[in-house]
Design goal:
Layout: H1 3-12, H2 29-35, H3 39-56, H4 73-86, H5 89-108, H6 114-120, H7 142-154, H8 158-173, H9 177-181, E1 194-198, E2 204-208, H10 211-224, H11 249-263, H12 272-283, H13 288-295, H14 300-306, H15 309-319
Antiparallel strand pairs: 1-2
């Protein structure tokens, strides 16, 4: 299999995102912006740019190749109104942030002058989107996690073994999806469960995985082999692990979404396993600062936002409020 064929197969499975493959002109401002981002953030912002271009062109341009230098302040105001109508406040704010960045790079490219740039991002046209929505995601219960693992165990193909290890590490370690894909074989000490995590901002931390999670990694390494390189990798068309190609976050999400559908999980997000980790530890009485350290958060307030204890307690409380008993049924 050629390098190009392997790249195409990986892309088709949602495992890679190559900026050169999207076909934008090399000097496109939006492409210049994407090149400044970390690889793990490029796909999300590329999708945001496509959303913006589609809205600004009234649905005509769907691939993100929008002439940003032709935008008018009136169009910016309509863009904001559309984002408010179609998206949750947090998502709308993210799209506006992307818009500001692309306009800045349009200015850097010399396609608009400074006065035009300032008019386009002026608060009069691009006022912040107010409001809030319920916290994203949820904490899974034990039965849901068991069903997710059972679906993986029942798949006797190599990919089933890999996915059971992925679920186990995310659930037992509480790590981010992007930290999972950055794991190398040498980062896990199978005898002790000690695992080196490569977090955001090049920060590293050590965690200890439960023996049950380590067992799933052992099973996966029997298939993958213990050669140095990425711990979790994709497969080629013949079902053989591609040892020199690291599985990406998109690949993990696609794989686990398929498992979640088979397990009958509703409103599933890969990050829910991290929320479950935080919620269960705090419910067991663990201190917030300790849980925050385990998660790799520099601010415990961030960890607190991951907890779904209030939602679970509220649900238990409201489910217990039955109608009062009445002596006679209402006559029809």
């Amino acid at each position: 299999m050629t390098t190009r064929e392997r790249s195409e197969n990986a892309r088709r499975d949602g495992q890679t995102f190559d900026l050169d493959s999207i076909g934008w002109p090399e000097n496109a401002p939006a492409l210049s912006y994407l090149r400044t981002l970390a690889p793990g953030s490029r796909h999300t912002q590329w999708s945001s740019i496509r959303v913006l271009g589609k809205i600004l062109s009234n649905g005509v341009i769907e691939d993100g190749r929008f002439p940003w230098e032709e935008i008018t302040p009136e169009a910016v105001a309509r863009l904001r109104e559309t984002l408010i109508d179609r998206y949750a406040p947090a998502t709308g704010r993210r799209h506006l942030s992307t818009f500001r960045a692309v306009i800045e790079f349009t200015y850097i490219a010399g396609l608009i002058d400074v006065d035009r740039r300032d008019r386009l991002i002026h608060p009069r046209h691009l006022a912040p989107i107010r409001g809030s929505s319920p916290p994203a995601g949820r904490a899974l219960d034990v039965l849901e996690v068991s069903r997710l693992l059972d679906v993986c165990y029942q798949d006797d193909r190599p990919i089933g073994v890999r996915d059971s290890a992925i679920v186990s590490v995310l659930y037992c370690g509480g790590i981010r999806g992007r930290e999972l894909i950055n794991l190398d074989v040498g980062d896990v000490k199978l005898r002790t469960g000690e695992t080196r995590i490569h977090g955001k901002g090049r920060k590293q931390r050590d965690i200890v995985l439960a023996s049950s999670a380590v067992d799933t990694i052992r099973d996966w390494l029997k298939i993958r082999g213990r050669e140095a390189g990425p711990l979790f990798v994709p497969f080629d068309n013949a079902g053989k692990p591609i040892l020199d190609l690291r599985l990406t976050y998109t690949g993990v999400s696609h794989a686990l979404h398929r498992r979640a559908e088979l397990a009958g999980l509703d409103d599933w997000k890969t990050h829910d396993l991290r929320r479950t980790f935080v919620t269960e530890l705090l419910e067991s009485g663990a201190r917030l600062d300790i849980v925050s350290h385990a998660c790799g958060h520099s601010d415990p307030k961030t960890t607190a936002r991951y907890s779904r204890r209030k939602e679970k307690e509220s649900e238990r409380m409201t489910r217990g409020r039955e109608l009062p008993r009445i002596k006679e049924r209402r006559k029809k």
